[in-house]
Amino acid sequence: MEIVFVRHGQTDLNKSNCIQGASVNQSLNEEGRKYAEKAAKNFDSTKFTVVYSSPLNRAVETAKIFTKGKKDIILDKRLIEFDFGEWDGLPLDELKSKYPDAVDPWGKVAKSYIKYAPHGESYEHLDQRCGEFLDEMAKKYPNGKVLVVCHGRLIRMMAAHYLANGDMDRFDTIDNCALVKFYYRRNTPRLKYYNKVLA
Fold it and tell me: Where are the beta strands (DSSP E) in the chain?
């Protein structure tokens, strides 16, 4: 199997450096839409066996731009972004100032955030749903090419599930509309590229 992940285009919350998780359903902003269209000009979706997307607006819009109406898009709830609980939608800089131990050295929400957002998702749960999705893709499309349009933190965990036993902190967040590609053969994943920018 070949599986390619695309992160959605920019939203206003991305631009303002706010937490944008499962409960925030923003659409692409004008800049995000234009950049997605520019990137999609250098992308051919017709070579893929199947296309999956998170059902959140920002991912669906990006998937439609990248597929150009040439492929059906399957929505899968397992691809929804990480649920930050009480932190969803809040400015990251304010949270970092208030809870410095819950933000990692790279300015991303750390695993310990859940002490302050008890209704948020755990890394373990995210790893589990990513693993379930990846296992299903390998069974359904062992010789296929799978395109997945989803979210930054989710893509980090997909990579971590394959390569780092679910330790998402080993991977940076890719850029909006950037790509990650894996080959998967005989239960062995191999990373082809990470954070490939198209435009």
Answer: 2-7, 50-53, 74-75, 145-150, 179-185, 188-196
* pTM attached to this predicted model: 0.96
Residue 14: pLDDT band by 50, 70, 90 thresholds?
Answer: very high
One of 2, 61, 81, 121 is an active-site residue; which one?
81
User: Which CATH number characterizes residue 41's domain?
Assistant: 3.40.50.1240
Q: What mean pLDDT value characterizes the chain?
A: 96
Active site residue 161: no
Q: Which domain holds residue 79?
A: 2-196
81 catalytically annotated: yes
Please give the tally of structural domains in the chain: 1
